[in-house]
Amino acid sequence: MAWAKEIRRKISSIKNTWKITKAMELISTVKMKKAQDSVMAKKEIVLEILKVFARIEDSLSWYPLFDNWLWDKTLAVVITSNKWLCWWYNIWVMKKINSYIKETNEVIDFITVWKKAANFVSKTWNNLIADFSKDFTDNIKPIYTKRISRLLKDEFMSWAYKKVVVFYSHYINTIKQIPVNKDFLPISSVDIKNYLSEIIEDSYDIELELKADIESQNDYKIEPSKEELAEHIIPIILDMMFYDLLLESKASEHSSRMIAMKNAKDNAAKIAWNLTLKYNKARQAIITKEVSEITSWVESLKD
Hints:
Mean pLDDT: 78
Distance between the termini: 32 Å
CATH topology of the largest domain: Pyruvate Kinase, Chain: A, domain 1
CATH architecture of the largest domain: 3-Layer(aba) Sandwich
Shape: elongated
Number of strands: 5
Radius of gyration: 29 Å
Order of helices and strands: HHEHEHEHEEHHH
Number of helices: 8
Number of domains: 2
Strand content: 5-15%
CATH superfamily of the largest domain: ATP synthase, F1 complex, gamma subunit
Structural class: alpha/beta
Strand order of the largest sheet: 3-2-1-4-5
C-alpha cells in the first residue's frame, strides 16, 4: 500500500497549493480594487485644477515642457512588478521595450520602478540612470511618485533628452491589460486638458462646469502672473499623471496575478480531483480483490 500513501501525499500537497493560490487570488482582487478606487478618488480636485488650467491655457505657448528638443536620446521609464506569479504581465512590458528599440533605433537611458524592470535593464546591458525599486510597495503614495515625476521634468529641462517615454501595462478591464509606450514629455495643453477631462467626464458635464466658472467671475486676479502660476500648477498635473500611471500599472499587475492564481487554483483542484478518483478506483480494486479472495477461501472450506 506504499503507492496509496504516495497518492494521498500528492493529494494533500495539491490541496495545500489550492488553498495558497485561492488566498493569493483573493488578496490580488482586493488590491486591484484598491488601486482602481485610488484613481477615481480625486475627481473634485481634478475639476478645480481643470478650471484653473482653462483660465491660464492661453498664456502657455512659451512653456518649455511643450517644446521638442532636437536631441537624439530618449529617457524611458519602465514600470513592472517586484515579483513574478502574475502571468505574462512583466514579459509583455519587456517585449514592448524590445520592439520599440528595434523599430525606432533610439538611444535610450532608463529609469526603473520595481525590481523586475531593474533586472531587465541590467541584463540587457542598457544604461540605467536611476532605480526606484526600493521606494515603493503596493501601497503607492503620491509623495514618493513626485520624486520620479520631478526627476523626469528636470532631466527633460536639462536638454539632455528629446522626449520621455513610459513603458507600462495599460489597464482596460479585469481580464485585459495591454503593454504600451506612452509619451510623457514633451506635453501639450491639449494633452493636459484631455487627461483631466477623462478623469471627471463620467461625473461632471465639463463644458457646463467650465462655462459656469467663467460666468461666475470675469477673470482671476493673479499675482504675480499667469506664467508663474503655470510654473506651479503644471508640475502638480505631471505628478498626478505619473501617479495615475503607477496606479494603473499596479491594477494591471494585480489583475494579472488574480487571473494567474485563479488558473493555478483551478488546475490544482482538477489535479486533486483526478488523483482522488485514481486513488478511489485503485482502492476499490484492492477491496474487490480482497473480497474475492475471502469468498474463494470460504468456498474452499465448504468443499
